[in-house]
Amino acid sequence: MEYLKFPMLMMLISGFMACKSGSSSKSLPILGSREPITKVVNGKTEVDTVYQTIPRFSFMDQDSVIINNDSLNNKIYVADFFFTTCPSICPIMSKHMLEIYNKYKGNPEVAILSHTIDPKHDTIPVLKKYAEKLGVKDNQWHFLLGAQDTVYQLAKEGYMSFAAQDSTVPGGITHSGYFILVDSKKHIRGAYDGTDDEQVHQLMKDMDVLLAEEKNLKNEK
Amino acid sequence: MRNKIILSSAFTLSFVIFLGACGNEANVKYQRYYADGSQVYKIYCENCHMSKGEGLADLIPALTDTTFLRENRAKLPCFVNNGLKDSIQINGKIYQSLMPAEKNLAAIDVAKVLTYVTNSFGNNQGIYDVKEVENQLNQCN
Questions:
Q1: Whether ipTM exceeds 0.90
Q2: What is the mean pLDDT of residues A132-161?
Q3: Domain limits at A69?
Q4: What is the pLDDT of residues B90-140, one digit of tens each?
Q5: Does A97 touch chain B if contact means CB atoms closer than 8 Å?
Q6: CB B65 within 8 A of CB B90
Q7: Do the beta carbons of residue A167 and residue A132 sit within 8 Å?
Q8: For residue B42, what is the nearest residue in chain A, using CA coordinates?
């Protein structure tokens, strides 16, 4: 029995450490640029921080429904950029997004936005068909169509992501494979490699953390 | 007693290794094709057909339809090199998405990746020789 003591002690210690790191990760950072603004409240000067928010947008989804900032009020969402004929990283991203979709299916506080970056080919009927073939039949996962320039700009300035035309890559468009987690105030709370199993699982853990935070905020009001 | 067990297991192990080393040449070739093929698969196929060959919902077919692979054995090299535009039926479902062509893949790599695919994911169809692939590539439409 003597030789069992050491591993058991180690297990106990690592168990404690696991608990500790678990509790410290209960709040997600707010990513992006930020600027302090000073204002005078009741005669006192106060400094407040303004965080980067997703700019206003308005796009049409696979059911021809307009999706804009207001339709996502009181929701957290995950956004990515893709195109339906993309032969490189998109299928694995879609597979991972499908895992997220299946986990949060029916949860009215969670939405998914997939922006097409090839609006010439990916018309509403093409997006509809793509969604159906993935098995998405409700209105929780929006496949969004918008003007190319607008979408590229939103990717760059809003989501710190990128998309651009590049004839040297398969499919003709290059883009990052990030999944961006956005809270109900349109702040970016996380960015994850959508092609990586582990990071996608971290994203789902972080979504639970964020959902708990949002719930606490609502209760405080 | 314990020493005896260790000794006899060491003996058995070395015997098995000895036997394995004597495996025939065809088997060695198959092993090489299969191992190299898994690397080719990672680069050219896995993004769409996924690591376990499971495909993606109704968009990208799985590579698990053994009957399809067997019946279309002669066409598979052309599918890889020229891609696919026509709809195909896999595991009873119709798939219409475009499959990109991998024109730059050499016959030997096509042979290796097809050896990997047709002997993974529940398939068990033996080696795809490079000569067989070269021959079939000359007959693509």
A1: no
A2: 92
A3: 53-220
A4: 999 999 988 999 999 999 999 999 999 999 999 999 999 999 999 999 999
A5: no
A6: yes
A7: no
A8: A88
Identify which of A87, A88, A95 has the shortest CB distance to residue B50: A95
Partnered with residue A41 across adjacent β-strands are A44
CATH number at residue A211: 3.40.30.10
Q: Which chain A residue is nearest to residue B49, measuring alpha carbons?
A: A91
The rounded distance, in Å, linking the Cα atoms of B8 and A212 is: 59
Residue A13 within a domain:
no
Task: Set out the domains of chain B in order of their start, with CATH numbers.
Answer: 26-137 (1.10.760.10)
Looking up tokens 């209760």, which residue turns up? A219
Chains A, B: CB pairs < 8 Å: 33
Count of the separate structural domains present in chain A:
1
* A88/B57 Cβ within 8 A: no
Q: Is residue A82 part of a domain?
A: yes
Q: CB A117: neighbour CB atoms within 10 A? A: 21
Nearest CA in chain B to A171: B100
| Subunit contact B50:A92, Cβ cutoff 8 A | yes
